[in-house]
Amino acid sequence: MTPSFSPERSEAIRAELITTVARTRPSRSRGLWAAALVLVGTLAGAGISTAAFAATGSFSPTPNPAGQPAVDTGEAIVAPPGTEPGSPVISLLGTPQSLVVEQDVDVALDRAPREATHVRVTVTMTSPGTLTWGPDPGGNNPSSQTSAADIGVASAVAWYDFPLDGTATRLYFHATPGASATAVLQYLNQVPTRLGVNEHGDTFGVEGGPEGAPDLVRVTGVADDGREVEGYAWASELSAFSPDHDAQPSTPKEAVEWQEERDEKYPSGWDIRVYESDGRTDIGAFHVG
Known about the structure:
This protein has 4 helices and 16 strands. It is mostly beta strands. The chain has 2 domains: 1-71 and 194-289, no CATH class; 89-191, Jelly Rolls (Sandwich).
């Protein structure tokens, strides 16, 4: 992974924020010229925290083929009360291991309990700079990039759950000159859960479980009276290019035209509705900007 942050990398991250909510749907033609959006709000269930993901850039773990389950659905359970459908039931295993990272260092993953399925790495930046961290010795790993103003606030903390699938035997940390961080390793057991299904046959929950992306994606929105609300937005609306174009542009020329139209009609973005899990009961809005 390249620690630098460029406009091209920013656009790639924005595009990924959109496509995560529909990753298992039929692929749409989209070149590097496609103009991306930012989802203003919270999509639940991401494997990496917003702080970590926003600094990730080119990190690309091996994806599942579009439309295929992440794991054998026979291993999944019905989400118990308090667990969002599609998100795993997580149990902490063993004692956390912590270390100070001020230079390149690698750590063997040789303390994993037999029941562990993942290791969660939580990084807190303690001085400005960039830190890459993960199982790829070549550097294709998540990264955290912070400025002096970030130190001591929430944006300096990031985490990622790495699967213990037999390919990850060590974790590699690389700090740019002057950067430092503390890292905590916690082994986990994750049991996948199935998506919920409402009375209309629509799936709801979070993306990333064994059944892929739901029709209704869990989000945090804003009620009409200004209160924060937890609900669901239609994945098709989250992944639309604009309110006028459900799909993505198919040619560079079309992309430019749609972009100009979108910038003129929706300079500050637009709202999509947030619903209860039935997909019909309107409870608020989610802003796409």
